[in-house]
């Protein structure tokens, strides 16, 4: 950016004390230099968020900075990795210093809390978009992937589903929510919690995992496909929050929980013999979880209610 890219980076992104011992060289040279822990795999994930596609133009900059990072941290959580380093490429239509100040404050709030260090990036001029590359580390052999679910494994999810989608319904003005309900669900949408500790606790326990960014109905399909089995989900057992159940019809609540997305909970599979270990491991990280189904032979996902495949009418309404 012609006018002061380096000053902007200095002012909002690089004037911070080094935090991690494994960053040999941070922002300011041609490359960052990192020193991974021996016998650890480096987990890398890149995401681009485009204004108008992935977020509304009027999304508060603080929330945007926070969420852009934690949405990526959620991918590390799904692999059982712990966060290490992040680089950030920002494209801005104009230099708006109050916006940049709020964005960087939100970004570093998450970065400092989760112990990830910004090691590089750039700022260019163009339509507003944010590209992040996060890197984490996981002991070799303990990574959790999408392709190791086995027939008979239980399907589980952490936390509750559908609140972020309920907040979006309200922002789109499709549902009216009282302020005491809107506030907590908007927090779930703008400041989601990446399940990093749960993901690490599930190393050597879960057979597969994925984070729920697009919604259970589409994310769980990836596990089924890559593991070569079929997921049976009992929609009656989905963990729905009280606010979701109270403010929309039960069909609508299921639709939001299954296809709303942006919950950033983990969906994982576990063999029946390991279920007790899940309980212990997740209790230690203060994470609730619910068994919602089981892997069987076949492919794709089947949704059931009261042990019967749900009707075509319902399926049409939920439209997976
Ligand atoms: Mg993901």
Outline the structure in words.
- It is a single chain.
- The chain is α+β, with helices and mostly antiparallel strands.
- It has 2 domains: 5-139, PurM-like, N-terminal domain (60s Ribosomal Protein L30, Chain: A), CATH 3.30.1330; 154-318, PurM-like C-terminal domain (Phosphoribosyl-aminoimidazole Synthetase, Chain A, domain 2, Alpha-Beta Complex), CATH 3.90.650.
- The protein is 37% helix and 26% strand.
- The chain contains 11 helices and 13 strands.
- The protein has a 7-stranded mixed β-sheet. The chain has a 4-stranded mixed β-sheet with strand order 3-6-4-5.
- Strand 4 (82-92), helix 3 (97-114) and strand 5 (117-125) form a beta-alpha-beta unit.
- Helix 2 (61-79) runs parallel beside helix 3 (97-114) and helix 4 (163-171) crosses helix 5.
- The longest helix has 19 residues, at 61-79.
- It is globular.
- The relative contact order is 0.16.
- Bound molecules: magnesium ion.
- Residues 75, 78, 211, 213 line the site of magnesium ion.
């Amino acid at each position: 950016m012609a006018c002061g890219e380096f000053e902007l980076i200095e002012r909002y992104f690089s004037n911070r004390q080094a935090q991690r011992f494994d960053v040999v060289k941070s922002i300011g040279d041609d490359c960052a230099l990192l020193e991974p822990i021996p016998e650890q795999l480096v987990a890398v994930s890149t995401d681009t968020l485009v204004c108008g596609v992935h977020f509304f133009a009027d999304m508060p900059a603080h929330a945007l900075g926070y969420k852009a990072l934690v949405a990526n941290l959620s991918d590390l959580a799904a692999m059982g990795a712990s966060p290490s380093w992040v680089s950030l490429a920002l494209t801005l239509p104009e230099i708006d210093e109050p916006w940049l100040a709020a964005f960087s404050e939100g970004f570093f709030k998450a970065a400092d809390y989760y112990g990830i260090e910004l090691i590089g990036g750039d700022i260019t001029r163009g339509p507003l978009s944010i590209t992040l590359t996060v890197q984490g580390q996981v002991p070799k052999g303990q990574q959790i992937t999408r392709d190791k679910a086995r027939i008979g494994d239980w399907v589980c999810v952490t936390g509750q589903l559908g609140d972020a989608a309920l907040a979006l319904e309200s922002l789109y003005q499709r549902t009216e929510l009282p302020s005491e309900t809107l506030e907590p669900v908007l927090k779930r949408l703008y400041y989601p919690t990446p399940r990093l500790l749960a993901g690490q606790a599930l190393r050597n326990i879960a057979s597969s995992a994925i984070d729920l960014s697009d919604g259970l109905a589409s994310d769980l399909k990836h596990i089924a496909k890559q593991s070569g089995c079929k997921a049976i989900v009992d929609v009656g057992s989905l963990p729905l929050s009280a606010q979701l159940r109270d403010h929309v019809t039960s069909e609508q609540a299921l639709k939001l929980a299954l296809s709303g997305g942006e919950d950033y909970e983990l969906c994982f599979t576990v063999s029946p013999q390991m279920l007790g270990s899940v309980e212990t491991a997740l209790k230690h990280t203060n994470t609730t979880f619910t068994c919602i189904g089981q892997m069987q032979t076949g492919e794709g996902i089947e949704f059931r209610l009261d042990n019967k495949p749900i009707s075509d009418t319902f399926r049409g309404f939920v439209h997976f």
